[in-house]
Design a protein that fits this description.
Blueprint lengths: L1 E3 L4 H12 L7 E5 L2 H15 L3 E5 L18 E4 L9 H4 L2 H13 L1 H15 L3 E5 L12 H21 L5 E6 L2 E2 L14 E2 L1 H13 L4 E3 L3 H10 L3 H4 L5
Helix pairs in contact: 1-7, 4-6
Length: 241
């Protein structure tokens, strides 16, 4: 199993869920820009589940050494890499902030994913799971830089699913709504619309086993986004969303 963004609470909860359900892997590759934190998680799953893991440093904001990734092979890839950034008026005009949101969520992520996609295509088997966001379904003033990057990522996963279908590779797009994680800490989230990492992991595992194409972490978000997407633009542009 390959995990991109291994410090993500959702990624770690999913790894634990998979192992709790009895699945085992020759090795779990934990890729992260924070090697120290990831190594603690590697030791945790080794002690709790007797599952061997290898930690590999991967920082999208630095030059990628693809040679270091060449010998990594797996049947499951879970991508939880993401960066919320700052979409307020301050962050909107901060060029570095904008570049990082786009780079981490899309432009520098896709070449890394394609590196592994080629391996899945060659084997003609496996599952690729990508965490996108409901923010990518329609641009809203509160987070449209982040949302535009996630919209691009969602489109990438959709096209990838289409491309890999006859190669027998399953591609699953996960669309979380509000998540109770470090990334959203301090934000005023509606508790009824917010999922914990453990809840998210259970949903993702079910979608993975059922070979779903797209899944919302909380089903209510499917209804919410259907409504938001169908509001006429002449009305939508006046709303504070």
């Amino acid at each position: 199993m390959i995990v991109l963004g291994s410090t993500s609470e959702v990624a770690q909860a999913f790894v634990e869920k998979v192992l709790q359900e009895g699945e085992r892997f020759e090795k779990i590759y934990l890729l992260s820009s924070n090697k120290e934190t990831t190594e603690r998680f590697a030791r945790h799953i080794d002690v709790k589940f007797l599952q061997h893991a290898e930690v590999i440093e991967l920082d999208l904001m630095k030059e990628i050494d693809y040679n270091s990734l060449e010998n990594i092979h797996s049947n499951v890839l879970f991508c939880a890499i993401g960066y919320l950034g700052d979409d307020t008026e301050v962050g909107l005009y901060d060029h570095k902030n904008t570049e990082k949101i786009i780079d981490v969520n899309y432009s520098k992520l896709i070449p890394v994913l394609n590196h592994f996609v080629q391996k899945f295509e060659s084997k003609r088997s496996g599952t690729i799971i990508g965490l996108s966001s409901v923010a990518g379904e329609r641009g809203r003033q509160s987070n449209f830089i982040y949302g535009s990057a996630k919209a691009a990522f969602t489109a990438y996963l959709s096209g990838l699913r289409n491309y890999l279908f006859d190669k027998k590779v399953h591609v699953l797009t996960i669309k979380p709504g509000f998540m109770a994680t470090k990334m959203t800490e301090g934000l005023p989230l509606n508790a009824k619309l917010t999922a914990s990492p453990k809840q998210a992991a259970a949903c993702i595992f079910k979608a993975y086993k059922n070979k779903k194409d797209v899944a919302y972490v909380l089903p209510v978000w499917g209804v919410i986004m259907l409504i938001i997407k169908n509001i006429p633009e002449r009305i939508f542009k006046k709303l504070k969303l």
